[in-house]
Amino acid sequence: MASTKEILNRINSIQDTMKITRAMYMMSSMKLRKAKEKLAETEPFFIGTQKGLAENLAHFPDIRHIYFDNRIEDDHETIKRRGFVVFTGDKGMAGAYNHNAIKMALERISGMTKDEYKLFVVGETGRVFFTNNGYNVDENFKFSSNNPSMHRARIMSEYLIDLYNREELDRIDIIYTKMLNSVTEETCVERLLPLKTHKFIVEQAKEIEADTEGTSKAAKEMKEGVKHVHSINSYELEAIQHGGDSWFPFYPSLKTVLEKLVHNHFTAFMYGALVECSASEENARMMAMQAATDNAEAILHELSIEYNRVRQAQITQEITEVIGGAKALKKKKRR
Questions:
Q1: Topology of domain 42-289, per CATH?
Q2: Which stretch of 12-26, 48-62, 105-119, 121-135 has the lowest confidence by average pLDDT?
Q3: What is the Cα–Cα distance from 182 to 179, expressed in whole angstroms?
Q4: Which stretches of 60-149 are DSSP H helices?
């Protein structure tokens, strides 16, 4: 059985740890509130870029471009060089947040050789893990996950799109964590390039139809545009691909407009992922610190009971020794 001094040392140590966990909980809750505000401010821009791209693609779904998944050149490629953008945190103590993102990335690259993939890791925790374990990590891609900003998202997007344009990458996927609510988080994988043209149009049309602000007309026009493009001949389609048609003129050209929209969509998605991951990380850390504080309180309760039991045993032992000594002295005097 431990002595009272040892138990007191443990109690003091746990109490000091509780001060840290409570402080981290408060800091995470404050950062989470700021991240949620940023996320709410980001959503209109993100939704706007998606709708703008979808509305244009609805009229020209068969356009062939490096940013879309219907190029003939892509069909003849046997090896796809895939890039994975993995979002992790810069530090631990966030529950399973970093572990889930790393696990998802490992599942995606399992069975691939180093020539078939490249990892672009955001956050020091994931970068250290993949680098130390010998995975193919882009050493020039070093970005923090703290304090997300549009400037950082734009730099990341330009770097990745440049690699894609130079055909060093044939596909770019993003692995990030989305906070569904204050308790549940989900690790997601999204394909950013090349865009799935028809799937993108259908999803956006459904979202517009479900809008409660009377925008079902936009969805109807989107569907009509898809039907119109499927009915035109190859000559008209070629004219559309080079700059528009009599219904929808583009300046300076359709290619330039779509490229700009794709760039904006890519940047918006990267920034949205940064903000989502920041909120998810702080939420996970907040829950982890709350759980740690609760466990510490439970341990303190058990230690206090053990301390009282040991102290009571010591007091009983001391009383017994005093009584025994008094009896011994009394017997000695009688002799």
A1: Pyruvate Kinase; Chain: A, domain 1 (3.40.1380)
A2: 48-62
A3: 7
A4: 72-75, 97-109, 124-132
Q: Are 89 and 188 within 8 A, CB to CB? A: no
Amino acid in position 166: R
**What's the first-to-final CA gap in the chain, in angstroms?**
40
Work out the number of other CB atoms within 10 angstroms of the CB of residue 26.
12
Per-residue pLDDT tens over the stretch 106-135: 998 888 888 888 999 998 888 999 999 989
Q: Tell me if residue 119 falls in helix, strand or coil.
A: strand
Burial class (CB in 10 A: 0-12, 13-18, 19+), 270: buried
- Which residues are CB-neighbours of 93 under 8 A, at least 6 positions away? 24, 285, 288, 289
- Give Dmax (Cα) for the chain: 130
What is the distance, to the nearest Å, from the Cα of residue 117 to the centroid of all Cα atoms in its chain?
20
Q: Are 108 and 84 in contact (CB under 8 A)?
A: yes
Is residue 164 within 8 Å of 75, Cβ to Cβ?
no
Please state the pTM of the whole predicted model: 0.72
Q: How do beta strands 82-87 and 185-193 pair?
A: unpaired
Q: What's the token pair of residue 127?
A: 């970068």
CA 229 to chain centre: 37
Per-domain residue ranges of the chain: 4-21+292-334, 42-289
Residue 332 token pair: 């000695």
Residue 158: strand pairing partners: none
DSSP-based three-state secondary structure for 154: helix
For residue 252, whether the previous peptide bond is cis, meaning omega lies within 30 degrees of 0, is: yes
CB 170 within 8 A of CB 77: yes
Binning the chain into helix, strand and coil, the percentages to the nearest 5 are 65, 10, 25
